[in-house]
Amino acid sequence: MTKRxxxxxxxxxxGRGRGSDGAGRPGTKGSAAxxxxxxxxxxxxxxxxRKETPRKKPPRWETARDDxxxxxxxxxxxxxxxxxxxxxxxAPPKPAQKKAxxxxxxxxxxxxxxxxxxxxxxxxxxxxxxSGGGPxxxxxxxxxxRRPPPRTxxxxxxxxxxxxxxxxNVGLLVVAFxxxxxxxxxxQLQTIESGKYSEQAMRQRLQKIExxxxxxxxxxxxxxxxxxTVEARAIYADPSLIKADKRQTIxxxxxxxxxxxxSTLMRQLSKPDTRFVYLAHGVRPDQARLITSWNxxxxxxxxxxxxxxxxxxxAAGVIGFVNDAGKGAAGLESSMxxxxxxxxxxxxxxxxxxxxxxxxxxxxxxPSEPGRGVRLTLQRDLQFKAQQAIEKxxxxxxxxxxxxxxxxxxTGRLLAMxxxxxxxxNDYADxxxxxxxxxxxxxxxxxxxxGKVVTAAAVMEHGGVTPHTPYTVPxxxxxxxxxxxxxxxxxxxRLTFAGVLATSSNVGTIMASESIGSQRLYQTLRDFGxxxxxxxxxxxxxxxxxxxxxxWSGTDRYPIAFGQTVSVNAVQMAxxxxxxxxxxxxxxxxxxxxxxxxxxxxxxxxxxxxxQVISARTARQISxxxxxxxxxxxxxxxxxxxxxxxxxxxxxxxxxxxxTGGYDGGGxxxxxAGFAPADDPQLVVQVVLQDPKRGSHYGGDxxxxxxxxxxxxxxxxQKVPPTGSRPPTVQIHARD
Length: 736
Description:
The protein is of the alpha+beta class. Strands 2, 3, 4, 5, 10, 18 and 19 form a 7-stranded mixed beta sheet that branches. Strand 11 and strand 12 (414-420) form a beta hairpin. The longest helix is centred in the N-terminal third of the chain and has 29 residues, at 164-192.
């Protein structure tokens, strides 16, 4: 009786067919070796051998199903019944260890190799055709069955399963590493570099605003303002708030209103990374209100102060001006800037991105300190008269320039310092920059005959010469290889030294100077202030030119004696006549009377230095001799003032021609210096005209009338009465 195959360890796994001999496919676990079944015909054996050709190795998932079938999974419905195999043909039990690959016996074909593999398998022989796809063997009893068509396996991507816990740990490590980077950066920003970024943020919010100091006023001797500080506004911009499409509109509005260059203004409004830039200073309040009414975003105003000169060009050469940056740029405004300007303060405030002041933010402040006022020795009314007179004469004579100085010889106080042409410090930018200086101290010139008083003082003090010393004076004289001459041709005259001075004879002065040596002449010039600065607080003062005798050539001492080959400024020459008028005592010129503090407390300037240059007797004799100059026989009768005794000296000096280095074609300097009343001198007036081209170029014609005009006004304004004394008789011609 043949046993029907069923479940069990020896049965084939589900889905597997059996071969003709009832065994499974060769090369699979639990299958016996296939042999040609007994009782089969030749055709059947041939068909069996063809089907015994091994199939391609099944995919892994099918092998897994084979394993599951060997464990007792239900088998497929068997095909036709087959005769039971003999017990001896059953495969031995499956060993526990992994089987070694089977080797085919030598000389055998595929069936032999398959049979040998089946004998080495661990499971029982399998029948039918499973997922392994072997040929179906004969049924028990010698029958044959049809093998179902082989199943085509689907191609699948291998999936390698891994431990999910390991993947989770790796993911957590990655997340932890990224978080540690963020944490490290936070620690760096908030601890290690926190100060740096806090400071940077504070700098972005903080804005430093300058608190300008009130500049001190400049007044005349009576307290009248010559330069004063008034309220004004500064216009500023915040470029970060100004949109690009609004810039041109702002430029078109502000440039003509403030007088600014449009291209410069556009660059200021377009500055990157900038929160504050000044556009203009010293804007009048009414202009600032107009600009504010336009409501331009990013444009604002700040309170400040503006310098104003209420008398326009009056004393501009002395006072100077303050530039747009608030710094003194000329005159006393420049030289005394530290005193006048005070000390500016500042305030640091926090500004929001919208440009608003943060009320509770940081606020640091250093208050400003106002400057001190400066009181001058100048007198406004006298200054006005002097300036008016010199401007008129410069225009009348077509001179290059002119100056007038009024001085008190007893104190050295300068009461007026006028020059022409001048400029208006309120609109200094519209004037010639060459006029911004003070020609009274910056311009050196050869004094000419006005310098003869120094030679007179030297020869009378040290050479034994008196006013009555006679000289035979021709109109020219030769010294070595140089010929010197008087200003006009004349016959040889017999003159006293007083006459030499009165007629301003160059030849007579040379003859008198030979009574002293070169060193004595040089030292007297130095004592009167030649070759050194006056000490006035005005920028750019020239000391003039006076070489020591060691540098003189063989003939230099002769032109020096009559005021050529040396140079002085106008204040130096005025100081010479003030020394004569003050009895031979030189008082250093003084321009600043003192300073005024914020509490209106006046601090007087130090007293000027006094030096006895010549004796009072010599000074008195020279003064009497100078009165003869203003007589009809002298060179300056146009300097006479009715009711007053006037002493003075004319000067007509040749100027050096810069093109040739000689005097020919260089023009002239016409001057007059004198004092009144001659018997009690209280005022000195010095007048200088550079290169007059219309009319006479002599000092007695061009400069003396200005002296008379200014001195007359000064005597009246100072309430100086006439002395009523009779002038001395000056002997001009010597008696044989």
